[in-house]
Protein 1
Amino acid sequence: MKPIFGVDYYPEHWPRERWATDARMMREMGVQVVRLAEFSWAKWEPSAGEFHFEELEEAIGVLGAEGIRCILGTPTAAPPAWIIRLNPEIEPMDADGHRRHFGGRHHACPSNPVYREHIRRFVTAFAARFAHHPNVIGWQVDNELGNSHGDLCFCPCCENRFRAWLKEKYGDIAALNDAWGTAFWSQQYDRFEHICAPKTTASGHNPSQMLDWKRFCSDLVCEFHRFQAQILRAAAPHAFLTHNMMGFSDKVDYFRLARQLDFASHDQYPGGHFRPRLDLPLEDRLAAELDFIRGVGGAPFWIMEQQAGITGWEVLGRTPRPGQLSLWAMQSIAHGADAVLFFRWRSCLMGTEQYWHGLLPHNGVPGRTYREIAGFMRQTAPLLEALQGGMPVCQAAILFSYDQEYALSIQPHHPELRYVDHLMTYYTALYRRNIPVDFVHDGQPLDGYRVLIAPLLFLMTPALAQKLRAYVQNGGTLVLTMRSGVKDEHNLCFAQGALPCLLDDLCGLRVEDYDCLRDMDGLVEWDGETYAVEKWSDLLTLTTAEPLAVYAREFYAGTPAVTRNAYGAGKVYYVGTQMGEALSARFARELEQTAGLEPLLETPLGVEAAQRVAQGVRYLFLLNHTAHTQPVAVPDGWQPYGGAGGDLPPYGARVFTRKS
Ligand code: GAL
Ligand code: ZN
């Protein structure tokens, strides 16, 4: 049977005599699987080629005796001191050319061939030892790839890999010079060998080079993963391979990484590193990250690390309120988690993460958290069993693109413009209406969606423009925004055509001018109501589009800000600004009316509705993210699952079912 609940466990942090107690207490609370080993290289290989896996094997055995299965992580996020002493050149280098040193984690360059040999030796032995262990069911390469890497590694090795990557992409140096626009500031290259990683410069950077660097870094991480994945797959073809991703973290293209996996996993920490306020709403962002990870794998996912207590390293976040940890775990399930592992089993007595609290406190005696999560597992297990493989059904999708995110992080225009935050203005508006959303990438079929929201398509290619055109032609409703069709795939501005280039006729307008709203908010008017907007105003000349909202400030007051254009069998909306909350809500209503998006249910603010469909049964989740009791009536046609009905207590959840 597939495990559904688990914990992240570090037996090497605890005396052997405690393991059996831990394993028993885990089983008693409903834990069926643990992830372990991902940071303990020094223990398993104290010197080159001298392997000591006995202790790990014993721990796996102790867990197995309680029926608990294991996922093993390769420990390459923390190479031991002896490796660094032997080969100091594998320490990563920052953008100023300084090495980052041993003493934390992630102190290794992802491309260094010497480091790769250390990895090959270790992972091969590790996999050989445990591949056929009956209790080892899956593997994870490294941990949160991309984490702590800032802009990754600028060492000579990575620089060389970057050159090879560019050579492969451009073939000859003239093509690169064109693509990077090196005529500017005399940046022309005669040969690939002269190109550097974009280290700290005296002044400025070439945006085209920066974009390729970010793409390269993402590819390098994927290749780093593949290097280990191949060893693991060859040794353990029957086991699954997954990776713990970090939501909207942007260092690795997760759509690409996910292709190497059997399923995606995600680490969900609603408390963040030290979130100072738990009372400010964030649940839309949490929901979006979960939907994103579901989109990345195109399937249900696992939570490899679900928050288990107060978060914190040097400073601490707030204490999750009674019920809140369970609610957050339920939210993960509602958005597509097939299994949830809590990080971590017990708060650690030593090291950086002493205050990243586990299910058990430092003294190992079960308290409020253990009891709460034990109750949660007991109550939720039958539901989660029934939900396996179940997905939401979404009529709307948001197009997510790392290329766009990279290009806009290089040139955000407005100092506070963030790609993900901008996408969130749309997501949140639909979320508040309980309209479920998928995240998609531009390489996948899009025709299944009534509405496709494709914000900030800053870089445009003829192929993407064609795909969007066909989508609308066939009856889709497309939402395009400010800063679309500005540049080509090399991050060069288009030489010809009107903004949004390649899309202007589809939108039925031209962007003739624009205004970056520095230190001020804009205002628009729609049907006699005024709404705040932020960061940007596109000044639009309409050809076939009709205006919906018009600007109400500045010299362009009275000119269109939000428009709609009929095209083929479909419609295109153009939003020339970043909408504030009230305007996004108004816009969501417009989409409901014209494209027929259907909310799952009307709920009070702070109560979320989500849905999964499994084996012909619909499951409707109601999640109360507020500190107050919320009244809920059983929705028409739905049965309370497990008999539980009535008001939603603070941080409480209810599930209803119905044959689909
Ligand atoms: C995660 C990471 C874990 C642990 C945890 C708490 O991001 O995967 O290894 O570090 O955060 O800091
Ligand atoms: Zn490097």
Protein 2
Amino acid sequence: MDSLKNLLQQKNCKDVVVLTGAGISAESGIKTFRDSNGLWEDHAIEDIASPEGFYKDPEMVHRFYNLRRAQLQDVYPNPAHTALSDLEKIVDNFTLITQNVDDLHERGGSQNVLHMHGELKKIFCLKTGKVDYFEGDVMSEEFSFVRPDIVWFGEAIKYSTEIQKAFENCDLYLCIGTSNNVYPAAGFVQAAKMKNALCIELNLEATALSHQYDLNFYGPATEIVTQFVDLFR
Ligand code: NAD
């Protein structure tokens, strides 16, 4: 990490974009897809993360997200989440994009989080088209007219304008704890490269797109993200 500190100083990186995935929350106790062999808490992805799955069985889908929402009460931000909230305060421009639907970045102190795949604590009313903050369980009498405000397969991501803007002056792109299997997030490294940003992957292990990054650091997020952010202090 010493030579990296020199490189960061030479490049004088000030405009930072970070993408996080399920891996950053793994050590807080929230399972990733990979932990569960491509299943999400024992469910096939298409059953609980597609509009077709929802219309086929809204009750099962709501019960699944009720459990995910309830789980948030038993998990806490880990040092990787808090390190990123520190980094937000240190650099000039900072954008945190997350694929995660949990609220651990916010609870770790991050101010501005772009939840590109939605949030467990938001609900979408199919009658009014309104999105509301939501805690607790969706009750059976509501199953047919509300849905979790989660981006499912085949649906457009949220905050695409803000995300595009974030890359305009990006000089450092960090990709943390994501398998890089899901587009468009997996393509962000290309957007960063077009701006000549330094692109760094931080993950437990190599991913399918590791070769596209300038540097890769492997290890648990609580260790490597905190070590990385310490380089800026
Ligand atoms: P993924 O499950 O496909 O991949 C997880 C990645 O995290 C892997 O590359 C793995 O090597 C890495 N990882 C695991 N433990 C780690 C650790 N301790 N430190 C660092 N890296 C670690 O997850 P994804 O790429 O985020 O894509 C999955 C999709 O599933 C997202 O769209 C997301 O919305 C959804 N999801 C969200 C959550 C959550 O909100 N916490 C959890 C599961 C799935």
